[in-house]
Amino acid sequence: IYLDCLASVAFEKYLFLFGGSNAKASNGQSLRIDVITGEVEVWGTPFRPREGLCAQLVKDHFAFLFGGYCIKNNKINKDASYSYFVGLADLRTGHIKDFKDKKIIFENNMGNLELKLSRKWISDAQQSIKKNGVDETKGFFVSPEHLVHVREGHAMSTYVGEEVWVQGGFLWSDHPDFEDEIVFSLLKIQLLGSTIQDMKVKIHKVDYQGPKVRLANHSSIFVSSELMLLIGGITYIDSNKSLYRCPSPSIYCYSTKTNIMARLLIDINIARQYHSTVLYKKENRLIIFGGMGEQDIFLSNIVTIDYSLREESSVPYDNFEIMKSI
Fold it and tell me: Which tens digits make up the pLDDT trace of 78-89?
């Protein structure tokens, strides 16, 4: 299997792989791997080619797919129909649904809005980017629906499978002189319905309290129904009044109950991005593996962090205690 920038979920005895790239073009097909026999097969209905997307197991037997971009002939496909992606895969039947327009509800603090991502709207947004640059605080980035537009390097996690949380990532800029911007936005995504036919997606942009954490290529994971951790990634560093990008060793904690983001006092020893993080619930242990450190050095080490949860507190870092880090 020669693919990178793909997404995966595990269900029953299978590992499902979605999208990815073969270095020349994005992939619009899925693979299913039997982890017992090692058998690999092409699986499911095709979808719009994507790489740099995320996948999360939700509602028992569905995989929720979000974000990414499309490469064609070694170039980003700028066609509006390829510029955003929200999908759902039924892991039992192989049916993969591509949500468009009517099945996506965007919600902000002004109330619920049924919005349609039209070609003209995306074209206008791209013209704004060319003129003003990418900025979450002005122009089209005020609108929560634009945060679906060509996002990569984001982190996505869930606790119970009913709600999915997406934080950070790059928003692609269609401008040769402007880099993709690392964003701090936090999205709460709810799946409404019980079958793939009637399922709707509600996306809410969360205006959280605390530091606005600009991260990409990081990992996120829930350690309880309330607390989500953001680990590592690449961020902006202010040096001599100029911003440059650098891997981060920091761990941030967000409480879904208090809507507060805070930075923990401990880090992951070595700054890294493109790593993976899993939770070993039985031992209250985080296991962080690999990734890329400073100067694009590949890392092969493992960091384990043992933790304990204290009694309920009004701020997230007060009810999360690090026991040890190796």
Answer: 564 455 688 899
Q: 165: closest CA among 66, 45, 275, 91?
A: 66
Residue 38 CB contacts under 8 Å (≥ 6 apart), including other chains: none
Return the pLDDT at 314.
59
Amino acid 257 reads K
Question: Tokens at residue 254, please?
Answer: 């967000």
Angle at 275 between CA 51 and CA 10, to 5 degrees: 65
- Residue 190 near residue 166 (C-beta atoms within 8 A): no
CB 284 within 8 A of CB 227: no
What is the DSSP secondary structure assignment for residue 19, as one 8-state letter? -
For residues 26 and 180, give the distance between their C-alpha atoms in angstroms, rounded to a whole number.
19
List beta partners, residue 50. Answer: 27
Q: How far is CA 248 from CA 106, 201, 211, 288, in A?
A: 31, 32, 15, 14
Pairing of strands 30-34, 14-18: antiparallel
Tell me, what DSSP letter sits at residue 36? T
The pLDDT assigned to 307 comes to 87
User: Is the pLDDT confidence value at 303 over 50?
Assistant: yes
Residue type, 274: Y
How far, in Å, CA of 171 to CA of 180, rounded? 6
Other CB atoms within 10 Å distance of the CB of residue 225: 10
Residue 15's Cβ-count burial label (10 Å; 0-12, 13-18, 19+) is middle
